[in-house]
Design brief:
single chain, 3 strands
Length: about 90
């Protein structure tokens, strides 16, 4: 089972310290996205997520029902595509 991101780490969008696997809540990421949209920093949010996933090999997405918002889903899918292209594995539940 993938370790969960600690709340403090999630707020910084940091993956687990083992560098192998991590779990991210789509609900929490959407809340960060909405805040970033209001601040005009949504592109920075996803760029940071992409950088911080660089050392991770397996990403488990939870609370995927929160992907119903199309603009959020599109941006996250772009990051996940790049992650997969580097050999990362995305698991959803």
């Amino acid at each position: 089972m993938a370790p969960k991101i600690k709340r403090r780490d999630f707020l910084l969008l940091r993956a687990s310290s083992d560098g192998f696997a991590t779990e991210i809540s789509c609900q929490h990421l959407l809340m960060k996205y909405l805040d970033a949209q209001m601040e005009g920093t949504a592109a920075d949010l996803f760029a940071r997520l992409e950088r911080e996933l660089a050392g991770v090999r397996q990403l488990r997405l939870v609370d995927t029902e929160w992907l119903a918002r199309e603009d959020f889903k599109k941006e996250l899918q772009r990051v996940l595509y790049e992650f997969s292209k580097r050999g990362g594995q995305v698991l959803a539940r």
